[in-house]
Amino acid sequence: MYILVNRDEDSSVYNYIAQQLLNGSLGHEKWTLAPKNSERFNLLFGERKSTQLDYTRIGHTSGLCQAVNYYRGSERLLCKKVPLVKYVRSLAESEQLAYQWMPVSFIILPEQLKSKSETRKKLHAKYTDERNNLVALSSTLKEKIWIAKSSSGAKGKDIFISDNIEEILAFVDEQTQGYVVQKYIENPLLLDNNRKFDIRCWVLLDHEYNIYIFSEGVLRTSSEPYDPNDLKNITSHLTNHCIQEECSTDFGHYEEGNEMFFNEFSRFLEEKHQVSLKEDILPQINTIVRKCLLGLKEELTTEGLGYHSFQLFGFDFMVDSQFHVWLLEVNGAPASAKSLLPDLAEELVRKAIDPLFPNHNNNEPGNNCHSDSKKCCRPSGGFFKKI
């Protein structure tokens, strides 16, 4: 019998997987649920915040294969906007190369962070406020729009857009955490009715550090026409699902749930622009994903440790009018589009969980890790493809 501890019940993906494993819906009939505080388990769906997930307590039970659904360090290195900017810069030999796939970005530390808080002192010690460089560059550009994003903001919160750099800085200085001020992509590729979108791709990093991308992605679409002259109309500019649903009276008018999937997007590109999603857009996405994750392998890998990790990431992208792909952010605990959840969950089990805990009747209960995954047919929907 394999033992599951689920401390991540708010996650639509992992809560679904837990339910399927426990009721045997995925072909597994040998899982049992242990209390959240149990230290004897095979599989842990842990807390999303690294400060709550104590990795030092995993992998010390002799003879028991243990795995957790987060890589230690991914949150602080990749999944917050300020560290992501610093990391992307480190991947390149020059700033020019670094910003081939991330908009020009500056790290701004609010004036309030100059207080005596120890946490804020550490932030100042780790990052340099780059407002002078931001102001200098802004004065040389013809395109003036900038977007400010809090380092750990989610669901479209704590975002401010303006073509006045002093207004941007005044906004940031009123906040209580580090911000990224980024050059706004003023020439986005637009859907019918001149609407913006971004692309969410699901990426799986398995316990052997193999990188997989889900074959089906989703475009999160705007309900309002894009208008660069009206920066206050957030539903024209921010395609986050929560903002669109809460603020737009036209939510769901063009696409159900303001979601467009790859098949429809592919037809749109080919019919309107004679561009191929498969040949022109997805290769750029795959390259960015690989650069981001391979560059962190030495810091994230669990090779040689007493436990295994795997993680599902949500990579968010924007495409401009020249069909150039830009990385916006990386989410370390992404939700799934409702219609994709069954396929996404089943494929995650096949790629990340089955190789460690195969459903073999002659196995002793969870005593040894295995490397060969169960052979079975691929589901009839989206699937994880190794890149």
TrEMBL record:
It catalyses: C-terminal L-alpha-aminoacyl-L-glutamyl-L-glutamyl-[tubulin] + L-tyrosine + ATP = C-terminal L-alpha-aminoacyl-L-glutamyl-L-glutamyl-L-tyrosyl-[tubulin] + ADP + phosphate + H(+). Its EC number is 6.3.2.25. This is Tubulin--tyrosine ligase. InterPro entries: TTL/TTLL_fam, Tubulin-tyrosine_ligase. Catalyzes the post-translational addition of a tyrosine to the C-terminal end of detyrosinated alpha-tubulin. The keyword Nucleotide-binding applies. It comes from Porites lobata. Keywords: ATP-binding, Ligase, Magnesium, Nucleotide-binding, Potassium. Monomer. PANTHER family: TUBULIN--TYROSINE LIGASE. It comes from the Eukaryota. Belongs to the tubulin--tyrosine ligase family. Its cofactor is Mg(2+); K(+). The lineage of its organism: Eukaryota, Metazoa, Cnidaria, Anthozoa, Hexacorallia.
